[in-house]
Amino acid sequence: MVGYDPASRSEALTPEEAALAGSAAGMVTRALISPLDVVKIRFQLQIEQVSSWKPQGKYSGVVQAFRCILAEEGPASLWKGHVPAQLLSVLYGAVQFATFEALTELVHKSQSYNCQTPGVHFLCGGIAACSATVACQPFDTLRTRFAAQGEPKVYRNLRHAVYTMYCKEGALTFYRGLTPTLVAVFPYAGLQFFFYNILKTLLDSDSGTWKGGLQSLLSGSIAGVISKTMTYPCDLFKKRLQVGGFEEARLSFGQVRTYHGFVDCMVRIAREEGLRGFFKGLSPSLLKASLSTGFTFFWYEFFVSTITSLKGSQ
Question: How many C-beta neighbours within 10 Å does residue 253 have?
Answer without folding.
Answer: 18
